[in-house]
Amino acid sequence: MYDASDPRAALAAKPGKPSATHFAGAEYARFHEGPPQIADAAGRTWLARGQNFVLAYTEATPGAVLAREAEWHESVVLLPDAGTSATIEAGAERVTSTGSAIVFVPPGPSRIVLPQGGRIVRLFTASAEDLATRCINAASYAAPHPNIPAFVPWPTPEGGCRLRAHSLDVAVEPGRFGRIFRGTTFMVNYLDPRHGPRDVTKLSPHHHDDFEQGSLALEGDFIHDLRWPWTTNMNEWREDEHARCPAPSLAVIPPPAIHTTRAIGPGLNQLVDIFCPPRMDFASKPGWVLNAADYPMPQE
Description:
Order of helices and strands: EEEEEEEEEEEHEEEEEEEEEEH
Oligomer: single chain
CATH superfamily: Jelly Rolls
Number of domains: 1
Number of helices: 2
CATH class: Mainly Beta
Radius of gyration: 19 Å
Largest sheet: 7 strands, antiparallel
Strand content: 35-45%
CATH architecture: Sandwich
Helix content: under 10%
Number of strands: 21
CATH topology: Jelly Rolls
Distance between the termini: 25 Å
Protein name: 5-deoxy-glucuronate isomerase
């Protein structure tokens, strides 16, 4: 259910599916509430995950080097701050960004250098087992969560994946929902910035049938409101949740929980939604995915 002013109100409804009968809980990782999972010369890194992805939130020291020896799948780098310069190498390629950018990194080895340090967010598929096992919420995924199909990457571009960098400085456009970028493994929606609390008369309670949503808070303060369906088996019922998650934090919302998120901070509130693999309904909307020309669509 969306307010009429919300661009998502125009999304086509999916054909009817059998109702879910088993549910998983939501995951909340409030990064500054506990010690980082990695503390080394590169800085402090907090790790949290969903079923298909791992998120690494790093507060890097000047001169930090973040290297990966190998990745099975394409990964993503977010540089949320304009003053955070980074050089990213993958194979024979190299790109340098002055920040406020998203970079898609091909499978294989990679290396990131941050001369002045700063914040950096990296997204990997759950095939990055060395990181997945160290996540704050690793125990929650000891068994697969219900209602989520097995992970399948989307088609690879002709000629293969390569380093692709995009600026996040994209003007707000009426009728478009946020600033959406996608690759073969992730869809990232860098939502339009919100200044001040959200209007509680225009919330957007909705659910997803078969995919998780990661909601990364980079600035401000949020409350995630969740409600699970009732089934004939009362043992599966769950209490409503109204989880406060100030930045920096990650909430992972399971299907088919009804959910909406309220910005409550008085200043800038910046949320980033993460989907792994990409979601078809957003990808099918003309003009919504800003780098759609880079990647082919799957055959439904």
